């Protein structure tokens, strides 16, 4: 893997960004209230809409999203844009439907709302555990992998050292400052991300000034060196690359799963995900929260132009590397025999970014790693402290809760460092292939639980809990099968049972949503209501 050639100016920009991030964090920590739980976990509920909006954006658009968007576009085409478009709706639903309920309930976490809604703690514990599992299975590994790939492919750093530096910086910012410091640094890093990404995107677009020219060039971006796969269509551009609505049999984006499955993932991601909701919980009032969500929804449109479409250009201009299919060839390019599409954006940075811009873009991507990881650390410490620890230590003091929160951040840091060796030997392409599948198997039961709990008073605690258990069991059963029986590489016969071979994970997502909803409603009519329910 050829690393980028960095000029002294690029290193100056990179180091300056790290120093400024730390200084901004220290300044914010000095000015913030950190001696109370509401000050540490919710920034004293004093944040305004610009900080909320940029923090939602930066928490969402981590380095794994940057690499994933451009890589998915390079490999499969435009339908990945649905994650961005439906994400806009998810943000607005979060701000205008769920946040008024959470705000009125005066909660620290979305799981705590369920305890107040139903009068019992087991749904709160269930959602908290699900969130922590998702962070460990999905968010932490994906960010660590993406950050390590960036450190190795662009900076020529050892990925262990690169990620260790980022994790330590993340821990310092989160432990010392709390949520207010996280939001302030997100605001600064968000500006760097948009500016750096826009400059590189502009350079890439100058090569293909019209969409028609890009379409024609993409359709011709066929890999020449396929090795043993020379007589197959493996790696060829999809004939549906620029169509969102594809045949229902499409292996990547069947229309039913694209229109409904991705919508379910996006609405859950913003409305049932403590990482994102905690930014809103910090708002001074509902007006600031809603305005922040509106800003975030506009910012959510930018990744399409900053990262997704440049992924097409990377596939066009660097076809042999980005779209490689021969395992030996791919291994020589990116040390991954499964494919190198995850390098799409990185290759653009290496080849097209001039001096200073290269340093700025690298700083922006690494900033996104720090931003997303601080969000995970802060929300994880809040969940463990406010949803779980105080169930055991009901009379825990403010100081004790703050200590638990900070210790949790330290544990997350150690966990992240421990994952690096395992990820070093993992198939990166396979990991990113499974990321949305993991979300598809976890998200539907949680989203339908919140929707029914918020919108239909007839739903009771027993029906909600046991109906959610039905969805959870079905979701994790498919998740286990996905890892035990992975899809074979292109050119190999698929010997998996027809149920798993032919039922796309996005279709299973929709089915899981419907089945869980029916189970919750049916059981709520059959099982009696508890005395403490709201």
From TrEMBL:
NCBIfam families: sss. It is a multi-pass membrane protein. This is Sodium/glucose cotransporter 4. PANTHER family: SODIUM_GLUCOSE COTRANSPORTER 4 (PTHR11819:SF196), SOLUTE CARRIER FAMILY 5 (PTHR11819). GO terms for molecular function: D-glucose:sodium symporter activity. The chain crosses the membrane at residues 12-30, 78-103, 160-179, 191-208, 253-271, 292-313, 360-381, 402-422, 434-452, 464-485, 505-527. The keyword Membrane applies. It comes from Macrostomum lignano. Pfam families: SSF (PF00474).
